[in-house]
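Service request form, structural biology core

Requester: graduate student, group of Dr. S.
Request type: structure prediction, single chain
Budget code: on file
Notes: please return the result as structure tokens.

Sequence provided:
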Amino acid sequence: MSLPPFQTVLEEYREDVLRFLIANVGRNEADDVFQETFLAARRAYPRLRSADNLRGWLLKIAHNKAIDAHRARKRAPVPAEHVDPGATDARPDPPDDALWNAVRTLPERQRTAVILRFTFDLAYRDMGQVMESSEEAARRNVFEGLRKLREVYA
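Core staff response, request fulfilled:
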């Protein structure tokens, strides 16, 4: 089975990947993580064995890069004169919809599950593939994420 040219894949799925990343890491970091996602995808593309689910494959890479971005943000040094003693995150979120800001505070698996379910309307089976978990685990992560959002947002 031959793969389509990588440029075709990029053009077809870039909007989906960018939407996922904006929802996951915020507008300020989405462009950088988007570039990292497609650089990693480009390097791995020649080794890909099947073109059956290219969207899911790209979302999985974006998911991993978003995790890396969240981890890097937590490790980033903050100048002492800018630290708010009550702040939990050194970088403020961009002016964004309050609901998506609340989604970004969810634990990583719940955040990803909620984004995949409600931004892309993925089936739980497909979500499990992206998240490398079972269909039931994906369903549970959405449930738990929504429960937490209701506590905070409702």
